[in-house]
Amino acid sequence: MTDVLFSFGDEFFYSNNLANWDAITQGQEISIINDSEKFFVVRNDIITYNKSFKIKGEKTLEINSTLKDLIFDGDTIDCIFKPYCIIAVNDVLEKGSGYQINDIVIIKKEAFFDSTIDQKINAVFKINNVDQNGGITEISLIENGKYVKSFTECEIEGGKGAGGKISVIINKLNEKIINHFSVLDVKYVDNSIVVELDEKIKNKFSSGEILIKRHRITANKPLIKNYMSQPFFIRVEKTPFLNLPLAKDNNIEQLYNQAILTIDSKIEQALRPIK
What we know:
single chain; mainly beta; Thrombin, subunit H; six-stranded antiparallel barrel
């Protein structure tokens, strides 16, 4: 096996979140490439972290955590965002002037959510009543809109007038926006983790969550040094499906074992019931 190995000088080996270590069982020997020291598997667990983050730049996240195994270079992560919508008008803060009854207006706010077809989803309002100067005295919500951050006050634009400002009641939607990114770099700064992504975050969200799941092997002893992005071998004596014996002679074992494991896997797939 040559999945990437991470360790911090303790008794734990961590996979990146793309590696599948399900087949690693208790008692198997771990051989780290270019290191003569041997380890044995005591336990294989799956650990899951769900952490909130703040967006610090177009491609940068900051997580309030000091967990060393939370996120690694090379991880592929899902960033989960929840947009907001306006649910009601709270009050008219500034009436403005020149508006007419039945004018349709929208929010003048740089917090729009851009849809997959790059259309800005804005709230829409209807002016129901005005005073003698065309100042807004009554306004109602027609469409809720969708936004990347919360706010309570906003200027409006459109219609025949200008200068109107309202306060609104805003709430998070149950909808989840999931974006996929690869992690290019991880830095520990004070009590937080700064993560550089491979792509820009499309919408200007201010926060979100990540979900990370990875394997953690507990070894029979602590590692003397740290390993990052380090390939390794798992030594086994028999194949997992047909229980075929594997060679132990160091001169031939890699070629033979790779062949016999491939045969074993192909036979298992061929005999697997069709669902």
